Structure formats: structure tokens, C-alpha cells
Amino acid sequence: MAYGIGILLLSAVAGYWVLERSALHKGQLKRVGQFVGWLVIVVSVVGIACRVWCLASGNSGWCSMGKGWKGGYCPLTSKSAPGPAQAP
After folding, report:
1. From CA 56, how far away is CA 60, in angstroms rounded?
2. Which residues contact 55 (CB under 8 A, 6 or more apart)?
3. Is the whole model's pTM more than 0.85, yes or no?
4. Are 19 and 37 in contact, with CB atoms under 8 Å apart?
């Protein structure tokens, strides 16, 4: 369960490393490196936030964006997943 957050934290560190490496280059390579670095960091932080949200809402599984999710609410979906009282 916690290894997922660890992997996301490591990917955020990798994004920071890409940002540092891109600072040593010039021109287009620098801009692409900065874009990729920030993209990796942002996606990692959003993944961590979703995981924390899922754990805080009482769901022990991964936030699966509303597909097969047992109760609760994922912030990345437009509606809450059907709970036991809402199941057809």
C-alpha cells in the first residue's frame, strides 16, 4: 500500500533531477527538459494527492478513477462512485 506513494515520491525526485540537468543546457533542449521535469513533478504530486484522498476517505485500494471503486469519492472523477446503498 505505501510502496505506491514511495514510487510517486521517487518520480518527483526524478523530475527535480531532470530540472537540474536541463539548467546546464541551452536553447530548445533546456525548455524541453524544464517542461518534462515540471510535468513529472506535477503528475507525481497529483498522484500522491489522489492516494492520500483515497486513504482519507476510507478506501484502502488505489483510486481507480471511478471504475470498480467501492464507495467514496475520487477527486479526479465528475461524480462519486456508487456505494453499497446506491448499487443497482
Report:
1. 9
2. none
3. no
4. yes
